[in-house]
Specification:
Layout: H1 20-50, H2 54-84, H3 94-106, H4 116-137, H5 144-158, H6 160-168, H7 174-180, H8 188-192, H9 211-216, H10 219-230
Helix pairs in contact: 1-4, 1-5, 2-3, 2-5, 4-5, 4-6
Length: 232
């Protein structure tokens, strides 16, 4: 996720204003994820269709819901950590993640300038350490529910930044507005609460479904106190 005030003209790999080698890495990451996910997804679909029964479909729906909730929580946890801990000089994570989240608070709409590749490539890449081992080592026949859980989790993690981007768009297409009115995707009105002082709640940015309960229980404030005590 990058925040920039202006966009350059089109280039061979699209519209971007950072080194081409990074753009190539992003494109390769997205393409590799897509290929791997199709392979993994087809294995799951074949296994579910072979076992087709009410209890199997029900089990897949249950683990799918759990994965959906997990993705929302993970988005909030990463957001919380990047907003509150470390600096842009933190090794490995500082420049790539912490700086981006901090700049986002200075320019919330800036991320809407990025195209799909720029906004989402990091998340797609971060899913690969889960997706690739799942293809290589996970026996879908024996662990179909785990496979389904991981597949749904990776889908929602991968699109989190895109959903976050929608929540900041000045003009939201009507189709996206309808999606935002469902529990599946973060609503602009809900996310605006995070960008309102004191900026210490509503961190979840995938669906936001966990935001109300985590706010009412003061979960993030408690976690921040624990983190600060552990650093003393």
């Amino acid at each position: 996720m990058r925040c920039r005030p202006s966009r350059p003209g089109r280039r061979p790999l699209g519209r971007y204003d950072y080194p081409t080698k990074f753009r190539v890495f992003e494109v390769v990451s997205l393409a590799f994820f897509a290929v791997c996910f199709v392979v993994f997804g087809l294995r799951i679909l074949n296994e579910v269709s072979d076992r087709f029964a009410v209890e199997v479909i029900g089990g897949v729906l249950v683990v799918g819901f759990l994965a959906f909730v997990t993705a929302d929580f993970l988005s909030g946890l990463v957001h919380f950590l990047c907003d509150n801990l470390g600096t842009s000089d933190t090794p490995v994570l500082g420049q790539k993640f912490i700086k981006a989240f901090r700049e986002h608070h200075d320019d919330p709409v800036g991320m809407t300038d990025g195209d799909f590749i720029e906004v989402n490539a990091d998340n797609f890449f971060m899913c690969l350490p889960v997706l690739v081992p799942s293809i290589v080592w996970l026996d879908v026949h024996r662990h179909v529910y785990l496979a389904a859980y991981l597949a749904v989790l990776m889908v929602f993690v991968a699109i989190t930044n895109e959903v976050h981007k929608w929540a900041h768009m000045v003009e939201v297409p009507s189709a996206l507005q309808r999606l935002q009115r469902t529990p599946l995707f973060l609503a602009s009105e809900m996310h605006q609460r995070h960008h309102t002082a004191p900026y210490d709640s509503y961190y979840c940015i995938t669906s936001g479904v966990l935001n109300p309960v985590l706010t009412r229980t003061h979960f993030w404030q408690g976690l921040l106190r624990v983190c600060r005590r552990s650093r003393q």
